Structures are given as structure tokens and as C-alpha cells.
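[Automated response] Your request has been received and processed.

Submitted sequence:
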Amino acid sequence: MKNNKKPWAGRFEKQTQPQVEKFTESVSFDWRLYRHDIQGSIAHSTMLAACGLISKKDGDSIVKALKEIQKEIESGRFKFSEKLEDVHMNVEAALIRKVGEAGKKLHTARSRNDQVAVDMRLWCRDEIRSIVGSTAALQHELVLKAGEYAGTIIPGFTHLQHAQPVLLSHYLLAYVEMLERDKSRLEDCSERLNESPLGSCALAGTTLPIDPSMTARLLGFKSVCANSVDAASDRDFCIEFAAALSILSMHMSRLAEEWILWSTEEFGFLELDESLCTGSSIMPQKKNPDVLELVRAKSARVYGGLVTLFTLMKALPLSYNRDMQEDKVAVFDMSSTVSASLEVLRLVVSNAGFNVDKIKSSCEKGHLDATALAEYLVQKGMPFRQAHEVVGKIVREAIRAGKALTAFSVDELKKFSRLIDDDVYGVLGVENCIKRYKGSGSTSPATVKKRLTFWKNRLKGRLKSS
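Generated structure:
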């Protein structure tokens, strides 16, 4: 027979209304905390036994039963009950059914307030580790693709207009750099959340002789939260996690948007693998980049979760309030959405191909070497603002005549500046531009090659460790 007795039954005479049970339950979504809830309970039971608050025999029975419950959940044999509200009470009720009175002792010196706080910290810590690994896998595919097209020059864009030539590998590595910052933000978040709230109980701690540092150590936390009121009511770590996920989603959305454009007939730079595209129900010729469109769209869903958390927490008085139950809906969905987006984007990058001929043809448009010509004049002694104006006039004439800057004769160019000489042809043209780039962080072949080697080595070690 199921034990659906409420943990507050001693205070109440009336049964909880079914509508209230339905409205307040959270087990329909917080069930996914079961592993972390059991992990925290095992540590708590071990500490209680070590402190003499329960017997070693009861402690051993509790730990053994909790491990059995975890196996039942993971095998699909465990039935969660909404009447028991949440994952915590479902696990505790199952524990009591297994070990009787000993199971009722587990909640000694603990509240669901510090229990859910520790569960969420453990869950976020594991999710961060997983997402960092998935982000590294996406970086790895971008680095492989950069190596595959190491010598390809593409038009660089500002305002979606042709700007200056860059190496395709340099462009791809730009996203690798972004994703590295995302990993760093997630790891920073993991470092800050790595404190144990167990022992804070509802908000004030306990009069019982417990050892919070022991549970912290058993759960792999670096320390114990310094303030019990803050520990029970803090969800900064969830918001920080959500913020890091939102920025990561933004980066994925930018890549998706760009590749959607690049796969159009108008650009033709990119060929997406058809196994990762969909077709049209009416137009037989279509190959649609739906996966990339959904990566772009799901960033909005992730942002929504962040706004939910901010709005949820913005006016809550200390300490715990039931409002905070809703944090899990947002955080769980955000983490799942980002994880799925990372995986599918990794597949897209891995299977994509670049149309080198079309890219080369595009490099011949838009006078990508104009800035190089202005810098050539600067090296001849002309002030940059004057050089900018001179080259602007040359470009205007080139547009009128419908020709590239390389198509002008020296005599034609000298009409704009006597400083221009035959050596100008060593500057003009995208290949010459690329060769002449200087400075760390630039798209010079030597710099990009060095950075590509750096990322290959760094990610190789990172993927092995994960």
C-alpha cells in the first residue's frame, strides 16, 4: 500500500484538495533530480551516522535502500506519485517502505529547502561538465574544417558588405574563440556554485550536532555556504548558468544565421549535407536548412528561460519561497535545448562543404583590396585620411568602369596619386592582401597556421580528458 502521507500531517487536520496537489506538484519535472537527490541523501545519512545522530546500522540500511531505489528508477520500475509532490518526498516514501522507522530518521537536520538547493547545485555542476564537453566537440569540428580549407580566401564582411579578404580558416576559428569563452563562463559558474548548502536546513541551521563540512567533502564541494539564509534562498548559480547558456546560444545562432545565408543560391559559399536538411511539401526542388533555422530559433527559447529566472527571483524576500520551485522548469529546458543544439550543430559543421570556386569568384567583387591600397599609400608617406580619400576616388572610378583595382594601369592610378608606382601590384589582389597581413590575431597565413596548431593540440587534450 502506498504511503502518501504529507510530511506536515501533524499540523493539518484536513486533507489537501486534489486541485492543490495537482497545482503544487513538481515531480512531473523535478524527477530528473533523482540521482542527485539520492547522492545528497547518501552523504547526509553517512554524516548523521558519523555524528551519532543515527546508528551505523540505520545509516547502512538507508544507504543500501537508496541505492536500490536509484536502480529501480533507472530501470523504469519506480512509479512517481504526484500526491507526494516532488522527487524528494517520492524517494523518502520509498525509503520508508523499504526500511521502516530507519527511513524516517533520514530527514534529521535537513529541510527540503537545503535538500533541493544541494540537488540543484549537483545537477548544474554535472550539466556544466557535459555542456563544456559538447562545446569542445563543436570546437573540434570547426578546427578540423578550418584545417581542411586552410588556404581558402573568403570575402570578410562588415554590415554584410564586402570588406577585406580573410582566410576561411581564420573565420572558422573566430567561432572557436567564442565557444572557448562560453566554456570559460560555464567553468567559472561551476566554481562559484561548488559550495554545499546542506546544514542550512529551512533557513537557520539546526541545534543538532551535525558536520556540514563532511557532507560537503563527500559530495565534492570545495566548501560549505557561509550563511544559512543565503544558502536556502540563493539561485544565483541557476541564473549565472542560464546567462552562460544564453550567450552560448547566441553564438550558435550567429553561426546558424551566417551559414543559412551562405547556403543560399545568392551566396553559394556552403553546401549543407542533405541528410541534415529537409524538403518542401509542395516544391520538389527545395533543400531547406531547417536544422540551422531551429538552432537560431531555440536561442529565443533559451533567452526566455533566463528572463523567467530573473523575473522569478527579482522580488522574493528572504529566505525560501515556493516561487523558486519554478526555477527548474526553466533551467532544465534551457540545458536540454542547448545540449541538443550543440550536438546537431556539430553534425552540420562536420558534414558541411565549402564551394571554393564560388567563394573565389566572390572575392573578385567588392574591391576587397581597397584598404590594402590605402595602407600602401600610408607606407609611401601619405596621411591615412588623405589615403582613404584617394582610394575612395579610385574605387568610385572602378565601380563606374566595372573593373577591379588590379585592372588599372600604373598611369591610370598615378592620376589619383603620384606616389603610386609599379610596386602597387604586389599589394593589390586578395592573395597579396592575405600575404601582407601582420600582427598577432590577424588573418596572416603564419598567424592562422600557428593558431590552428594551438587549437588542435588544446582540444585534443580536452576531448581526451572529457
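Summary generated for your ticket: The chain has three domains: 18-108, 113-361, 365-460. The mean pLDDT is 96.
If you did not submit this request, please reply to this message.
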